[in-house]
Amino acid sequence: xxxxxxILFLLLISCAQNYSKSELKKxxxxxxxxxxxxxxxxxxxxxxxxxxxxLLQVAHSKLRPGSLIKIINIKTNDxxxxxxNKRFDYPEFYKLIITQPVADELNLRxxxxxxxxxxxxxxxxxxxxxxxxxxxxxxxxxNAPVEIVTINNISKDKNxxxxxxxxxxxxxxxxxxxxxxxxxxxxxxxxxxxxxDSKKLYINPKxxxxxxxxxxxxxxxxxxxxxYIQLKNFGFEELDISINx
Length: 245
What we know:
Blueprint: H1 2-12, H2 21-24, E1 29-36, H3 39-43, E2 58-60, E3 68-73, E4 79-83, E5 86-87, E6 94-98, H4 100-105, E7 114-120, H5 124-139, E8 169-176, H6 179-192, E9 201-205, E10 211-218, H7 221-234, E11 240-243
């Protein structure tokens, strides 16, 4: 088993998302789902610590309290900059735990709390700029114009009513500079994760120089969650989530 882990480690250090010292110095950046805090979850011990669900509060499992982060609603591009209030564990499928007021500020849907979390590094000029933005964002009403992510128009025919666009989710497993490296990792996952549907794995060449190994598409969050947990247990530290690739 140790031999397999060593091989996997050597393989992963070749990909673009490796964990070298220089990479670890970069700001934390991850895409996935937010856990919207509910006090009942604390009472049921699903969550080990509690937040004040009347305030704008966030908690993370790795980032220290006081760390400045920008949270973006991937579907609408609404964003907010906040400080981490607490650090504690929560179900690892989620990227961040937030209170309902934060979800409201982001116009985040409970059935699709898809977010991007970006750590804001605290150098003097950057913090001054971000502090100004944060103060301005506090004044902006949630209905104010925001930059919108392009979404395909699925309702061109005005006569068609109740036409619902089904979102498709993808797990971003790793990014490489070489297609051969992506193929090698795909083969290892297929051979060693016996309960994983290998048909979901595919290599997606992006416009940049990076090659992405992905799993999907998934039509529901619950279906994706099972594969996500399998991949995490296989040894991947961070797995990003993408939508409508």
